[in-house]
Design a protein that fits this description.
About 25% of the residues lie in helices and about 35% in strands. It has seven helices and eleven strands. The strands form two sheets. The protein has a seven-stranded mixed β-sheet, with helices on both faces. A four-stranded antiparallel β-sheet has the order 6-7-8-9, with helices on one face. α3 (about 25-40) packs across α4 (about 55-60). The relative contact order is 0.17. Mean pLDDT is about 95; it is low at about 1-5.
Length: about 240
């Protein structure tokens, strides 16, 4: 996991929600459509790993009776619990998470998987997905599309604070990492934050999924400035690899 992430928006989840406005629950709507396409119905249970503030999960919770949201950032979970008290939110590490139960669907939006850089740790995350699955479980992951990195947003705005940030990206192909640095202009001061994302290629991701018992069904896009470079991967658990 990227432990040294310095992200202003993680410290202020209410700002996070204004910057990443969700584009009208676009990710949740895509998940709803894919559940119907793959299962022929909505799942009875859903685990959202990397749930953030819980906004996408709130949309899906209106459709699915049994949902659990997990995020690595305690500040995000605290905010999610305060804003969406009817949902089961928990803090956890996607590499080691074990809820000792299974779900008919698993989602992981917000580029959560890209925060895992080491190959071994990616396998551990795949084991987490498999451990919480039964044959037929639908898995939907948001990752970066390696062919669309030039579409990543260059400017971010926090409307309530009249704050803006320009983003600079550096691609390190040898390590399959993309580094983003932002400098926020906030109350007359400059605040820098940075993060690195793992870039996974489709066939590489298909390999990880396959050896953990998942069949890759397809990839999809979601319209929106903040998701223009995203690839939504849909897979289904066939059973133990």
């Amino acid at each position: 996991m990227e432990h040294d992430v310095s992200n202003l928006l993680y410290r202020h989840p209410e700002w996070y929600e204004s910057v990443y406005d969700g584009a009208g629950h676009a990710a949740g709507r895509l998940a709803e459509t894919q559940f119907q396409a793959v299962l022929g119905r909505l799942p009875a249970s859903l685990l959202d790993i990397g749930c953030g503030t819980g906004r996408d999960l709130e949309y899906l919770a209106a459709l699915i009776p049994d949902v659990v949201g997990v995020d690595y950032q305690q500040t995000m979970i605290d905010y999610a619990r305060a804003q969406r008290p009817g949902i089961d939110f928990r803090t956890g590490d996607m590499r080691t998470l074990r809820l000792h139960r299974t779900f008919e669907a698993i989602t992981s939006f917000g580029l959560a998987l890209t925060y895992i850089h080491d190959n071994h740790d990616i396998d551990r995350v795949m084991t987490t997905y498999a451990t919480h699955s039964v044959p037929g479980t639908v898995l939907i992951l948001e990752t970066l599309d390696p062919g669309k990195l030039d579409l990543l947003p260059a400017r971010f705005t926090i409307p309530a604070m009249h704050a803006t940030a320009d983003a600079v990206y550096r691609h390190h192909p040898g390590h399959q990492l993309l580094e983003r640095t932002r400098v926020w202009r906030l109350d007359g001061e400059y605040v820098r934050d940075s993060v690195r994302f793992r870039v996974l290629y489709p066939q590489e991701l298909a390999h990880y999924l396959d050896r953990h018992g998942f069949e890759l069904l397809g990839t999809h896009t979601v319209a929106g400035e903040k998701t223009a470079a995203s690839m939504f991967v849909v897979a289904q658990y066939r059973g133990e690899a």
